[in-house]
Amino acid sequence: MSPTAPDVPVETLRKRKLQATQSLLGDTIGISDDEWQAATALPGWSRAHIATHLAREADALRRVTEAALEGRQIPLYSSPQQRFVDIEEGAMRRGLDLQIDLDTSADTLNTCWDAVTDWKLPIDIGRGPMTLANLPIIRFREVTIHHIDLGVGFTVDDLEPVPALWLLDFRISQFAGQGIPAFRIQSESGVEAVLGEGAPTRTVTGTDARLWGWLNGRVGPESVTGAEGLRLPLAR
């Protein structure tokens, strides 16, 4: 299904995205070269892979935006193969180069978005038809979830309640069944949804942040209530 941006002003989402980026950069600035090469929970990816992915995604979102402003639609990446090569090669760099790339690519994307006057312009990045207004929540999600993946102390419990609600709503809008038996989620803030395939066989409850983390495979079933034995796959 096509993901749906939360009913929140784009500039509000952009502000939160900027704050999330600054928080990530603050946590990564002290990582040594050896620590950048350490493995993460993402199979086959080191911290350097994650940093490179975030930088190249910022570049990709900028290109998509620039094309939309010119009345064109382009894919997020030229090809899966090129995306793989770019990440693998970028992951071999020194920590300082990774940090500069993270900072510069994020700043260039933000400057590009400053030029947008019509966030309803259509785009298609392989997730179904959508508009530019979806991009800030997509980027906010990426920065937040990979901040967790970096293993630098940031966890789902560090999310503030309001952005956690946005992220949970967005995850629900893009959740695929993936052969998982249906379940109902009920968050402490009142969010309810049925996900998976078939009729729901259980109800899973928790905070917005922990439910979002569980739906993305970043926390286990013990972090929510009612999910015993149901560990969801890592969402990239």
Give your account of this protein's structure.
- The mean pLDDT is 95.
- The protein starts with 9 loop residues before the first helix and ends in a 21-residue tail after the last helix.
- A hairpin with a 6-residue loop joins strand 1 and strand 2.
- Helix 3 (47-69) packs parallel to helix 5.
- It has a 3-stranded mixed β-sheet with strand order 4-3-5.
- It is mostly helical.
- It contains 8 helices and 5 strands.
Summed up:
The protein has 8 helices and 5 strands; from the N terminus they run H-H-H-H-H-E-E-H-H-E-E-E-H. It has 236 residues and is mainly alpha-helical. The model has no long low-confidence stretch (mean pLDDT 95).
How helix-rich are the residues, as a percent range?
A: 40-55%
Total strand segments: 5
* Uncertain regions spanning at least 5 consecutive residues: none
Mean pLDDT: 95
Backbone shape: globular
Adjacency order of strands in the biggest sheet: 4-3-5
* Tally of DSSP helical segments: 8
Distance between termini?
A: 16 Å
